[in-house]
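Response to reviewer comment R2.3. The reviewers asked that we include at least one raw input/output pair. We reproduce the pair for Nuclease (SNase domain-containing protein) here without editing.
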Amino acid sequence: MIAALFLASAVAVVDGGTLRVNGEHIRLLGIEAPDIAARCRKGGNCPPADPRRSKDSLKHSLRDPITIIPVARDAAGRTVAIIYAGGLNVSCEQLRKGMAVYRPRWDSDRRLARECRFARAGGG
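Raw output as returned:
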């Protein structure tokens, strides 16, 4: 898979863990952010952040250049990618800010765990 460069103005934020680029939904590797439209079931293992704050956090993290490195496809057929904005890994930034939680089972080849020093073996 080939890395692609985009300008921040060409990227739309769907929620704290998903971007839309040229009409395609792209999920951030290894994290779960709260969905804007979904509600957490009582007793569910949901991200603790407020959905709107998580989305705004991701939006404010986007700065040029944005590099998208596709890693896989998820069960819904969306691209899962490592995304850098202004040289920073935005999955790591969302974790650092408490706007998402690390999900080891979603971290292909533990790439995010190696890059984010706070992404531990715990999580779901």
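The chain is about 20% helix and 30% strand. The two ends are 27 Å apart (CA to CA). Further pairs are available on request from the corresponding author.
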